[in-house]
From TrEMBL:
Signal peptide: none
Molecular functions per Gene Ontology: homoisocitrate dehydrogenase activity; isocitrate dehydrogenase (NAD+) activity; magnesium ion binding; NAD binding
Biological process, per Gene Ontology: isocitrate metabolic process; lysine biosynthetic process via aminoadipic acid; tricarboxylic acid cycle
UniProt keyword annotation of RNA-binding present: no
Protein name: Isocitrate/isopropylmalate dehydrogenase
Source organism of this protein record: Hesseltinella vesiculosa
Family (UniProt): Belongs to the isocitrate and isopropylmalate dehydrogenases family.
Length: 377
């Protein structure tokens, strides 16, 4: 058979397993990634998997002096079709020689888009939840996250001054903008095939371009112009997709006031990071929101929560974000029907509300949530 990532096809056989790299990394990553693996292996009539355990993270750095060993990069590039990444305990202060392995992996594997669906599920755990079905697509390789910073002494005052370079390119903006319009069409097609998916969105597909070009006229100006040109230069292909713009500050305001008005949102790296984490509050918790780091030939699922060192090892970490990230991985590897089974099983457990971890107001353990989802499968 053939697997597809964003319309590009790479060959597999019906008998060959999907080879997936597992990078638990730090903290609760060591608990939620095995949970996601267990669900993948338990899919009824699902694809066969071969899992490879790989190293990365701050804990690994403290042991070895490197956060991302070359062996992990080489294995992912040469052997794997996808990966699941757990969580990383990046320190808030500078540690000599350390840099985030997840940022490095995105660059090494050219995973240029971070894809985060934020969808409400009726549940006793979220009694005041708004109804929304939003997809946030974040450019994953540029902006301030190129990590080009320096510190100098101001000769006039004798005090420290820090600078950070920001990069926005037409190349990166165009390809993530193209993904946004393509996924708007894909979501609309799914809604038409499954009327239940129209419960929160009954309009034309829409892409919202987030920027701050009224202040950052050169960098955000290039971003805005490039993403707009994706539709303007391909009007026949994207004619059915509405396009709008939002300044990032008003985007945050509107997202919390009327999140149901957004379909696909596309943003530069920093803005996308902030609004996608904020959007998790609309559906209850970071513990339920998945993401996928997506390129043209590789995809890596990643729950959006952190390493949660305060609860690591206690067996109460919420595995739902990791399990949904595994479903996203399947979806982008060309197995949407099996991804749908995972989504439905997770949604059924949330809707039931009887088996929830403490972050959702419950008393269940990680293993009990996994078992409940297994039963729904």
């Amino acid at each position: 058979m053939a697997s597809r990532i964003l319309g590009r096809t790479f060959a597999t056989t019906t008998m060959s397993p999907l080879k997936i790299g597992l990078i638990p990394a730090d903290g609760i990553g060591k608990e939620v990634i095995p949970a996601a693996q267990k669900l993948l292996e338990s899919l009824p009539n699902g694809p066969k998997f071969e899992f490879v355990q790989l190293d990365a993270g701050f804990e690994y750095f403290k042991k070895t002096g490197t956060a991302l060993p070359q062996a992990t990069i080489d294995t992912l590039k040469s052997e794997c079709q996808g990966a699941l990444f757990g969580a990383v305990s990046s320190p808030s202060h500078k540690v000599a020689g350390y840099s985030s392995p997840i940022v490095a992996l995105r660059k090494h594997l050219d995973l240029y888009a971070n894809v985060r669906p934020v969808v409400s599920v009726p549940s006793p755990a979220f009694p005041n939840q708004r109804e929304l079905d939003m997809l946030i697509i974040r450019e994953n390789t540029e902006c301030l996250y190129i990590k080009s910073e320096r510190q100098e002494i101001d000769t006039a005052t004798g005090l420290k001054v820090a600078y950070a370079d920001r990069k926005i390119s037409e190349y990166a903006s165009k390809r993530v903008g193209t993904m946004a319009f393509n996924m708007a069409l894909s979501r609309q097609k799914l809604r038409e095939q499954k009327p239940m998916n129209q419960r929160f969105w009954k309009n034309n597909p829409r892409v919202t371009i987030v920027h701050k070009s009224n202040v950052m006229s050169i960098t955000d100006g290039l971003w805005r112009e490039t993403v707009r040109a994706v539709k303007e230069n391909n009007s026949e292909q994207y004619g059915s997709v509405d396009m709008e713009e939002q300044l990032v500050d008003s985007m945050v305001y509107r997202m919390f006031r009327e999140p149901e008005t957004f379909d696909v949102v596309v943003a530069p790296n920093l803005y996308g990071d902030i609004i996608s984490d904020g959007a998790a509050a609309l559906v209850g918790s970071l513990g339920v929101v998945p993401s996928a780091n997506v390129g043209d030939t590789f995809v890596m699922g990643e729950p959006v929560h952190g390493s949660a060192p305060d609860i690591a090892g206690k067996g109460i970490a919420n595995p739902i974000a990791a399990i949904r990230s595994a479903a996203l991985l399947l979806e982008h590897l060309g197995h949407p029907e099996h991804a749908s089974k995972l989504y439905d099983a997770v949604n059924a457990v949330l809707a039931d509300g009887q088996t929830l971890t403490p972050d959702l107001g419950g008393i269940s353990t990680t293993d009990q949530v996994v078992d409940a989802i297994l039963k729904k499968l």
